[in-house]
Amino acid sequence: MLLCVAMVYCTCSFAQMWDNSKPDKNVTFGVRAGLNMSNLTDDEIDYCIIDRLNSFHVGVNVDYNINKSFALESGVFFTDKGFVDEGYHSFGSYHRYFIQVPVMVRFKFYVSEDFNIQLKAGGFGAPIVGSNSGSYVLEYSDFDAGLIGGIGISYKNFYLGAQYEYGLTDILNHREGVFHTSNIAISLGYDF
User: Fold this and answer.
1) DSSP the chain
2) What is the CATH number of the domain that holds 168?
């Protein structure tokens, strides 16, 4: 009996958080900037000791609001991803600069009129526009693409979020192994 009461309460609470009404604006814009903690994952090589590279991202996002709780989210971001080689080669930091375009679905759950929690998932495409790998030359792929999943909170027009990005392409043209990008991004933003 107690379980049934709890389920009814949770269902009613969830229904109040979801808002199917028409959005105030069909298209909204925002700015985002924040910290990247990126790395490479490899499928086969054991001798590499690769640490996370702390870097940054900055850009604009665009939301195509279907209703107040559901939207398609995209944007254009300049992002720095890479890794720190502290192992076999010990060559230091490798930076790859991307113009990243994400496309995600976003669900927004309202705690109050001014405060909401967001869940989002989708993918990204990112051509590489530059690099900085010191004196050691590595052959990189010219394009990265992958999956994104994230969570965020908004209070009025201010945004705080975190997302995980996993590249599906072999980013490092290396004769031993398949390497993928891996990135945790923490963002601050403002929505207009």
Assistant:
1) -HHHHHHHHHHHHHHHH---SPPS-SEEEEEEEEEEEEEEEESS--S--EEPEEEEEEEEEEEEESSSSEEEEEEEEEEEEEEEE-SSS--EEEEEEEEEEEEEEEEEEESSSSEEEEEEEEEEEEEEEEEE-TT----B-SEEEEEEEEEEEEETTEEEEEEEEEE-S--B--SSS-EEEEEEEEEEEEE-
2) 2.40.160.20
